[in-house]
Amino acid sequence: MGTGLQLAGQISVLSRSYIEHADIVFSLLPDGFSQRWLTKLNSNVINLQQFYAQNGEVKNRRDTYEQMVNAILDAVRAGKKTVCALYGHPGVFACVSHMAITRAKAEGFSAKMEPGISAEACLWADLGIDPGNSGHQSFEASQFMFFNHVPDPTTHLLLWQIAIAGEHTLTQFHTSSDRLQILVEQLNQWYPLEHEVVIYEAANLPIQAPRIERLPLANLPQAHLTPISTLLIPPAKKLEYNYAILAKLGIGPEDLG
């Protein structure tokens, strides 16, 4: 289940109840404040952060995720009422949840996911954008670079995990200015270098403000990025009418306001 983005305030009543009544709770939360809050709801909490590389160790994240899933499934197999509490939405850029649910169901156990408030939900609210006005596209930054995705510059484009853009080894948690420059050159096929983009980071605590930093696309390689940075690229062109479809529908552009 998802805890939402802000400490305690964005968790659903149902998800909180699952935590309170669980035999064991596994957690992946962003900070010590969140971890301590969780232990007030249930004293039997196991922090999955322990499976990440420690003290300069080089470790493939696939191995880390496999260890996390095994820990969760061991509790399930032992007959314990098991909850995994994940920061934000548990199904968005969180493969551990999907892997654990799939494996549990394959072994005959009952398992499900409860949604949480995601960084995307916070982004639309903090920036005052209704994505329904022009639509939006959303990609993980490295996947966008590695594959032939073609963005629509009339919509909002979200690139997630921009701080590791171009990283393919699954052993590093940062990118480089050279990799970001390659991304800028790629995006320049559809967006002018002077086009304003936004680095966004949702607030974790009620006393924090979200990070909303506006800069030209050309300046992205020099920007300060963190693991929770998301890149928003607003539309660079106006929506274009599909005159052939409008004619078939008997609608004129003037009818659309």
UniProtKB/TrEMBL annotation:
Protein's name according to its UniProt entry: Uroporphyrin-III C/tetrapyrrole methyltransferase
GO molecular function: methyltransferase activity
Organism of derivation: Shewanella decolorationis S12
Superkingdom of origin organism: Bacteria
SUPFAM superfamilies the record matches: Tetrapyrrole methylase (SSF53790)
Alphabetic keyword roster: Methyltransferase, Transferase
Tetrapyrrole methylase domain segment(s): 2-208
One Pfam entry name: TP_methylase
Gene Ontology biological process terms in this record: methylation
UniProt keyword Cell cycle present: no
Annotated InterPro entries: 4pyrrol_Mease, 4pyrrol_Methylase_sf, 4pyrrole_Mease_sub1
CDD domains registered for this protein in UniProt: OphMA_like
